[in-house]
Design a protein that fits this description.
single chain; alpha+beta; 5-stranded antiparallel beta sheet; two-stranded antiparallel sheet; 7 strands; DNA-binding
Length: 287
DNA sequence: CTCCAGGTGCTGG
DNA sequence: CCAGCACATGGA
């Protein structure tokens, strides 16, 4: 399908939600995205409807005039189309919590993307003590130096870089990584890449583990504490019961809830609640 | 220029 | 267990 449609699907909100760092605005309602080694351009053509630019996603020079189904189903998966966000929104809107209700209204087009675990792991290791624009530029620089360069199919002469493979980052020296501007995180990134490339940390095997084990495995890496591990669990492994607590969420807890917010109330969708909160508090006008 | 960011590790109480 | 601090860097 060249279009994706689902209740609660808003490109702008997703792009600004801080869960992915390689989705960028081209123009109003139009975004580029690099994921799974591919480059695509996406347009919000109406509420809850996204158009996939077929020329950006398909290699017409390779003899294939017609894009195959799988060229597009990958994006349906990426945007988590089959998950029922409607029922989550409904449930939260029926709750008593005014702040949560406002947050859900404000970010009702948010979704939790299904991103690649390794990319999420490295990106969120870099994210510590950086703001989102700085994270984006650092990730981009990492890709430009250690990712594979590919052609943008719809833009002759233009190229993009996919996210580096674990081996590429493991082979890079710490000093070389430091030179990219990731600061003291260089050894964290390097040792995580080494762990993955050596098979000591088997990301595909982690898919099968329960969330406690997953968190513990991730936190055994140097430079991965509870917050980064939570982001990896939520954004890289789709664990909706895991809720990352960062400075913004702390601020909400303190200023709105007097340090008495209960995550337990939300159980297996706590991670989603966190995402609505995060997006709301960061983007809405100061209350 | 200063401030601070989707934190973590380490140290000392 | 918790508080304080160093850590590199760049966007605002």
């Amino acid at each position: 399908m060249l279009t994706m449609q689902s209740d609660h699907l808003n490109l702008k909100q997703i792009a600004e939600s801080g869960q992915c760092f390689r989705m960028n605005r081209i123009e109003e309602n139009k975004y580029s995205l690099i994921a799974y080694g591919k480059y695509v351009e996406l347009s919000q053509v109406s509420k809850n409807k996204i158009l996939i630019d077929p020329s950006s996603a398909v290699d017409s020079s390779s003899g294939e005039n017609f894009p195959s189904e799988e060229d597009f189903s990958i994006w349906e998966k990426y945007f988590d189309i089959e998950y029922d966000y409607g029922s989550v929104v409904k449930k939260l809107m029926e709750g008593k919590d005014d702040f949560i209700r406002n947050a859900v209204i404000y970010g009702s087009g948010l979704r939790i993307l299904r991103q690649e675990p390794f990319e999420i792991l490295i990106s969120f290791i870099i994210s510590q003590n950086k703001n989102i624009p700085a994270i984006k530029s650092a990730v981009e620089k990492l890709c430009q130096h250690y990712g594979e360069e590919k052609r943008c199919l719809n833009r002759p002469g233009e190229t993009y870089f996919d996210f580096p493979k674990p081996e590429a980052l493991a082979a890079a020296g710490k000093d070389a990584l430091r030179a990219l501007g990731i600061g003291y995180r260089d050894e964290y990134v390097h040792s995580a890449a080494v762990a993955v490339s050596e098979g000591r940390l088997d990301l595909s095997q982690l898919q099968n583990k329960d969330s406690d084990s997953l968190m513990n495995e991730l936190m055994s890496l140097k430079g991965v504490g509870k917050k980064v591990a939570s982001c990896v669990a939520l954004f890289g492994f789709h664990r909706f019961e895991i809720y990352p607590v960062d400075v913004w969420i702390n601020r909400v807890n303190k200023e709105i809830y007097k340090n008495k917010f209960s995550w337990q109330t939300y159980g297996d969708i706590a991670g989603l609640v966190q995402q609505y909160m995060f997006y709301y508090i960061r983007n809405c006008e100061r209350t």
